[in-house]
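Provenance

Sequences were taken from public entries as deposited. Structures were produced by running a predictor on each sequence independently, with no templates supplied. The record for Diaminopimelate decarboxylase from Tenacibaculum pelagium is shown for reference.
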Amino acid sequence: MDENSLLNLARKYETPLYVYDTEKIISQYTKFVSAFSKVKKLKINYAVKALSNINILKVFNNLKSGLDTVSIQEVKLGLLAGFNPKDIIYTPNCVSLKEIEDVAKLGVQINIDNLSILELFGQKHPKTPVCIRINPHIMAGGNSKISVGHIDSKFGISIHQIPHIKRVIQNTGMHINGIHMHTGSDILDIDTFLRAAEILFNVTKEFKNIDFIDFGSGFKVPYKEGDISTNIEELGKKLSLRFNQFCKEYGKDITLMFEPGKYLVSDAGHFLTKVNVVKQTTSTVFAGIDSGFNHLIRPMLYDSYHHIKNISNPTGRERFYSVVGYICETDTFAINRRINEISEDDILAFSNAGAYCFSMASNYNSRYKPAEVMIYKGKDFLIRKRETINDILNNQEEHII
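Predicted structure for Diaminopimelate decarboxylase:
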């Protein structure tokens, strides 16, 4: 995945193009599992929403990973990728009772995050084990849009509503077999996880026969040289020690679960684009590329940083550019960024393009979604063809008006 390799892929498959390095994915997964090697029962469920191409899911299936899903479509993708239903957990938000019931029929683990649906589901399906998503009221995450465990969040059942949960259980006879939380993304401070852990342990004590505790994810990955990230080894050491102690207090070995997405696939992805125009204005030099927020929305949506490198001229003199897209709306990837001198037709490579990049792509401006390529055991495989006008029209119905 060096500059020459990426450049050759851009020439072979054209741009815009997403490229994923499976060796990096496997390395991250192995690193994560090793950090919690002291825990007797550990389960890693890859968050499908980060990158849902079925070929990537098959890589995780080969690693004996489970899946964290948030929609019935993600569940079905996981099943098609070969996952056993018991290795899939389904954690929706604001979906219909019918969707939850349809997923339950597929045999996966159900995780419910509001009292109303919990009661309705328990009344109709008291024998189906259910996990409960708790809102720990912890403000965490690198951005307010990806902080999901605070008191005003739409996610989870408040820790102050535990008596209500217990009353639903008593009235329905349903079985609660897991406790879950997810506080946010891009969390750097491991004390946040440790504080939330104590909250989850206290909640777990309120219920008998809990089989697993799911700590969600949110681990920060580095986005540029010198950037800091979550110290997964230190977290593994501290949380494993406390978790093992809690299992003794609880009287049984509970499974420790996580649902990482970005941590596993972010750094494995590169987004390759071609420069259409270099435009000088009175105050700015723009590098306009053959893409936009229809392909990579994170910088516009979350103010996220993606390192951008000119792989056509990696040793050229550095100049300052604002990198923008071709969408008929402001779509700025970088402002006044130092990049090796750019000319028309150069190829720019965006780093950390594995998570929440293609999976959030759209057909805005009726533009085609890009192709995807996976590097597996040293070979490149086209895992998603570039769209055509037929894909745009596929589900449209023409009528004579």
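The longest strand covers residues 269-280.
The chain has a mean pLDDT of 93.
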